[in-house]
Amino acid sequence: MNTDRLDAVIVGAGFGGMGAAIQLNRLGYDDIVILDREDDLGGTWHVNRYPGLTVDVPSTTYSYWFEPNPYWSRLYAPGAELKQYADHVAEKYGLRRYMRFNTTVDGARWDEDSQTWLVSLSGGETLRTRFLILATGYLCQPKTPDIPGIEDFGGTVLHAQEWDDAYSLEGKKAAIIGTGSTGVQLIPKLAEDVDELTVYQRTPIWVMPKFDVAFGPAAQRLFARFPVTQRLLRMSSDLFMDLMVTIAMWKFRQFRPVNSAAARIGALHRFLAIRDKGLRRKLTPNYDFGCKRPTLSNTYYRTFTKPHVHLETAGIERIEPDGIVGRDGTKRVIDTLVLATGFDVWESNLPAIPVIGREGRDLGKWWRENRFQAYEGMTVPLFPNMLTQASPYAWVGMSWFDTVEYQMRHMNRLLGELQRRGAETFEVTEEANARFLDRMLTLLDDSVFHLGDCVNSRSYWFNSSGEAPLFRPTSIRQAVKEQDRFPLSDYAIA
Ligand code: NAP
């Protein structure tokens, strides 16, 4: 084992991990290692390369506040531009020197004697570090559905998260399983290329109109020369997103009509795209808007009106070597199967690696036996000097950057205090953690998750106990403000 003590090990080289590294640098820490199992940085934007991938939050909002990018080609930028942006940030802030790729972390354990974390890597190496930062994301464990016969399918299987760019879809008879945000982006693109496309939908998704605009060279020059112009645009997209989520989801009790208005916009969007009543009905969600991640598309619904695109909603009975048999007995012969079946958020994630804290507390086990919980969505009792980003009650708003940036503020205040006191460790108190959990649960009482009709939504935002502990049900502004004010006495600092 390398006995040198690092300042920090960050697990995950996506935007979360990079934000954490930038914050550590600002605080003067430089002995940092960022580990990632992939072969390059960017997290989800490195892994996802499927056709039609774009960011589904305005790019003006989906970026670090401190690093605006004047060169987005559109309001909803293509995925490749997000990867370029990640590369740019890593370059500008000198983060690549910290990164080790193709490195899988087996687990981490707090060592009481040395007051450090021991991080085990799959090759047998162990790193010793003062701070441990889990930046693995909520959506990092792609799911292959457990459908009978899937292993014996004789054609080509394309996973959305492992897209094979070399595979030509021209002339293919394809099927896609999954109509979440990924499916909604992929389906119109697939339909452009293949001869036949069958979409297997289990739960219809809310699809809203997308008000997208291209940013031509003139707009990009304007943003670059007068950054205030882009700031103003960002402030409006931030405010719109924040208000939508806060009012339609978290303040459902007080603003139910706003949620209903959003649902009516979705219904109008369907009505304008699809004349066939039966088809429209099949694509109509039977749960409230906001129970599950809504998505944006101006092409999704129209795609189903094309003669070579078929929608199957009876469910899948089995997959055979040459096709898919539905529960209604219909068989579709296919040569290409596309899986847009989402991620395992609850079983193999949260945490994404085994983490053992003080007194042998196993984070995953403790969360499952005592409810998912994390103070300010970041710290957990008996896990000293550990910050976890994709945690219970951490996710605020719809842009991941909102979460990353309020967490950077939390780090700034907490680690700054350690430095002022010349202290070595922090650990959130049980009392502060319980108080925060209580507050989150009370806030959720007003949300669409509690008061809306979410029974049929099959939303990954809910766990198997029917709780929805991923989101911090507050506005983004409030989450940000609180990070400059949380009582430092909520931590034992030693
Ligand atoms: P998802 O929302 O979990 O959707 C998975 C889809 O697969 C659902 O339609 C699900 O049906 C279906 N499915 C899963 N197992 C199935 C089975 N055994 N049989 C039939 N259908 C099955 O996953 P996602 O679309 O990848 O999106 C996940 C999240 O990623 C989004 O919510 C969003 O936060 C993010 N995302 C962002 C972007 C972007 O910004 N560009 C793009 C894509 C995704 P059920 O609904 O019935 O379970």
Automatic annotation (TrEMBL):
Query: What protein am I looking at?
Result: Putative flavoprotein involved in K+ transport
Classification via InterPro entries: FAD-bind_Monooxygenase_sf (IPR051209), FAD/NAD-bd_sf (IPR036188)
Instruction: Report the GO molecular function annotations.
Output: oxidoreductase activity
Highest taxon of the lineage: Bacteria
Q: Which Pfam families match?
A: Pyr_redox_3
